[in-house]
Write a structure and sequence with these properties.
Layout (H helix, E strand, L loop, with lengths): L10 H5 L4 E2 L5 E5 L4 E8 L4 E9 H6 L8
Length: about 70
């Protein structure tokens, strides 16, 4: 299966793609037909994504993970 490569430089480009931006600056990606959620913190000038969590859909909806990071 080919890998999908994206190059984002702004939040607007992410919104038009796969990710959803939360008000606290984190990005949430749905993986494997909404079975999992990948939560990352983007640093656009450095072109980096820092992984905060990889959760099941059920775990993400409990919102307990939000208390772990400021």
């Amino acid at each position: 299966m080919p890998r999908r490569v994206s190059e984002w430089s702004t939040e607007r480009e992410i919104r038009s793609g796969l990710g959803k931006i939360r008000c606290d600056g984190l990005l949430v990606f749905n993986i494997r037909r909404n079975r999992y959620r990948l939560i990352v913190y983007p640093v656009f000038p450095r072109r980096k994504l820092y992984i905060k969590a990889l959760l099941t859909h059920k775990e993400c909806n409990r919102k307990e993970w939000e208390k772990q990071w400021p």
